[in-house]
Amino acid sequence: MSLPDLYLNKNEDKRLRKGHLWVFSNEVDIKKSPLDQFIAGDLVNIKSDDGKILGTAYINPHALICARLLSRKANLKCGVNFFKERLTTAITFREKIFSKPYYRLVFSESDGLPGLVIDRFGDVLSVQITTAGIELRKEMLFTALIELLNPTAIILKNDNSQRQLEGLSQESEVAYGQLPERLIIEENGAQFRVDILEGQKTGWFYDHRNSRAHLASIAKGLRVLDLFSYTGAWGIPSAIAGASEVTCVDASEGALSLAMENAQLNHVSAKMVFKRSDVFEFLKQARLDNQLYDIIVLDPPALIKRKKDFKLGYEAYRRLNHLALQVLSKNGILISASCSFHLSRENLHEILRSSGRHIDRHLVFFSNGGQGPDHPIDPAAPESEYLKTFFCSVSTSL
Question: With CB atoms counted within 10 Å of each terminal CB, which end of the chain scores lower, N or C?
Answer without folding.
Answer: N
